[in-house]
Amino acid sequence: MTLTLLMRSSTSQLNGRHFQVFVVVMRSRGLGEAALKLGITKAAVSKSLGLLQRETGVELFARRGGRLQPTAAAHQLLPRAEQVTQHIEWALEEAAALRQGASRTVTVAAHTPSLIALLPGAIQRMQRTHPEVNVCMRAATPIEVLRQVAHHEVDLGVTNPPAPNTISAIQLCKRKTISEDLLVVALHKHHPLVAKPMVRPEDLAGHMVIALPEESPTSVLVRATLQEAGIKLKTGVVASTSMGVCALVHRNVGVGLINPMVLSTGVFPDIVTRPFRPRIDLLTEIYCSSLKELSNEALIFYRYIEEIAANRDMNTELLPVSLKPT
């Protein structure tokens, strides 16, 4: 099914707020709940939806059993509407920064391991050497990181490389490997597998393994290794991020196969790790647009991330990088 929206741009009364209301309604259990979330009346929500339907010429909601239910067209429109609302939020963030006189901003999207292990150190260096520069962080999945870099929504992205031929956005990005880690098995300190010096695929049989989403680069590598070993795991729980995996392992819900970067802060004291064999190499890469030059500020932050990655296991003193005059 293809959804076509017919709007007269010169006379349309729609604005971003109408799409914000639509998204909240789609994520709520009814107009009343949506009105509470938005801080407006139920009548105002209904009026906004009515205008959206009239201007688009598409039936987005229908009453069934006395309740307003979204149509198939509404579900198809939702991802685009969410993009609209996200861009509005980012624009408001930029406007707030400008009001505060922060004209120099570096925006970075990162997945959980690098967000925990690399970026805090790079931000601290930036604060010490260039306090006039703001750093805006966005946590995102690897695929979303690449999409934001390719669409120039962020200056830099830091994440695992995607599986081959899974995302076209990577063709619009320049990339560089900045860190290499080995996948580890995360275990609660009282888990029976702690007794093993290393864990192999066959050792995981019969144990609950907390999985990452199927499209996760780590999941793709783990799945290929297990298939080669002929092992089918018991994966009844899926966590959206590696931090979520660790939170569940910390409560002894199951076993996690993760990037050890996630544990670099020591926030999960009851988790211990064991090497996984055969070894699975996990790369961390830094991305920027192949079509747009980095600002001086973004280039400096890029270098700081590189240096933090290279020295995170060493006590090496890092020298500041100077801004070029603008």
Automatic annotation (TrEMBL):
InterPro entries for the chain: LysR_HTH_N, LysR_subst-bd, WH-like_DNA-bd_sf, WH_DNA-bd_sf
Pfam family, any one: HTH_1
Species, as recorded: Comamonas testosteroni
Keywords for this protein: DNA-binding, Transcription, Transcription regulation
Gene3D superfamilies, A to Z: 3.40.190.290, Winged helix-like DNA-binding domain superfamily/Winged helix DNA-binding domain
Coiled-coil region list: none
UniProt domain HTH lysR-type: residue ranges: 14-71
Family assignment from sequence similarity: Belongs to the LysR transcriptional regulatory family.
GO biological process, one term: positive regulation of gene expression
GO MF annotation list: DNA-binding transcription factor activity; sequence-specific DNA binding
Designated name of the protein: LysR family transcriptional regulator
